[in-house]
Specification:
This protein is of the alpha+beta class and about 210 residues long. Helices cover about 35% and strands about 25% of the residues. A hairpin with a 4-residue loop joins strand 1 and strand 2.
């Protein structure tokens, strides 16, 4: 049986808002993966004086709900301050679309996760994190779970590409089960650096290959 979408979901799917890239984006994050069926890349441009999101765009891979929820969440966040954006939830996105079938709720969760990852990265990048708790091993693994292996579309934690992680004295050392000639090693290194380098108490990130 076909999934019962609302008229608004269909409208945003057929004519999504804010599609594209921002060349000079303040932050860019990708959540999900083609291997899981849905993926969103979100770009934010923020006014440094007012902390308002002046532009937001997205690229999406996935079903109608994935595209529609990414479209609506970019509408919801545009013009909001970073603090206001932090409070937008997957329920807000789903309700703004008139509801989603239970089997498609994960799409609104993915869109909200992308937004919250972008907001967190912006705050870290600009030294605006107010609750400065020490970086833990769990925190590092959580951030690494958002780094995708382009070859499989699965994150490097689930795909067991991480041999070990050590955190101490402001230094993160990561050993990967990858060889130096792996075709996507530069992509993975770059994304690891992007996810971790703005943590307030981290001064150095070492990525070692042991494949």
């Amino acid at each position: 049986m076909p999934v019962p979408y609302t008229k608004l979901v269909i409208e945003h799917f057929k004519n999504p808002h804010n599609v594209g890239e921002i060349e000079d984006a303040d932050v860019k994050v990708t959540e999900g993966s083609p291997a899981c069926g849905d993926m969103i890349t979100l770009y934010l441009k923020v006014d440094p004086q007012t902390q308002r999101i002046v532009d937001v765009k997205f690229k999406s891979y996935g079903c109608a709900s994935n595209i529609a929820t990414a479209s609506i969440i970019t509408d919801l966040v545009k013009g909001k301050t970073i603090e206001e954006a932090k409070k937008i939830t997957w329920k807000d996105a789903a309700e703004a679309l008139g509801g989603l079938p239970p089997v498609k709720v994960h799409c609104s969760v993915l869109a909200a996760d992308a937004l919250h990852s972008a907001v967190d990265l912006y705050l870290e990048k600009n030294g605006l994190v107010t609750e400065k708790e020490p970086t833990t091993l769990e925190k590092v693994y959580e951030k690494l779970s958002h780094v995708t292996n382009p070859e499989t579309g699965i994150d490097i934690v689930k795909s067991r590409l991480i041999k070990s992680v050590n955190v101490g004295n402001g230094i993160i050392t990561i050993k990967l089960n990858l060889a130096s000639d792996f075709q996507f090693i530069d992509n993975i290194r770059e994304e690891i650096q992007e996810r971790l380098q703005y943590l307030w108490d981290i001064k150095e990130i070492n990525i070692l290959l042991e494949g």
